[in-house]
Amino acid sequence: xxxxxxxxxxxxxxxxxxxxxxxxxxxxxxxxxxxxxxxxxxxxxxxxxxxxxxxxxxxxxxxx
Length: 64
Fold this sequence. Notes:
Elements: H1 15-40, H2 43-63
């Protein structure tokens, strides 16, 4: 007997849902980088890094 016939068909998630997951992954990656850099960078580099990250996140949100 072939058991493959008994398996339910997996439904694919809509593309919008996949985009949300990708954005969530990007946000988690940014938080991880910021947390690690907080221990090693001086204050001037920190301000520059936060400015660049805010610009990138703002552009991504604006393009949606």
